[in-house]
Amino acid sequence: FCDNSLLTCPTSLGAPPAMASQDMITQFGKIKDEVNVRLPQCIEKVLGGVKEFSQKNVEDWSNKVAQESLEMLQTMSGNFKYIVNVSLMEKKGAGFHTSSATFWDPECDAAISYRWENKALVCVVQVFGLGI
Length: 132
Known about the structure:
Blueprint: H1 32-47, H2 58-76, E1 80-90, E2 110-117, E3 121-131
Antiparallel strand pairs: 1-3, 2-3
Helix pairs in contact: 1-2
């Protein structure tokens, strides 16, 4: 059986999720917790030293965060197509809202949204994992 969060789904061989090999992971929900731990590390690697917002650097920062995140995801499991969306904005107290809608197979597809911020900027990374 699978619960709605997809975090406790057994593998096809009946092994607990923690024991599943990378090749056997076919449900993105099984690696969501680990992605939530590793995603801020990718963001921190790129933006951790940023002390001041710079509009001329936003495109580069955004591309680097997306690439770091994508590389991390691919090392976790190659059994998915990934979409990584990065939004950066200067931290000025303005409101910021992002949302997405999906139509997919909830048995193998899932998404994560992670908000990171420091004194200068706000970064929101959305990751979509789609089973192949």
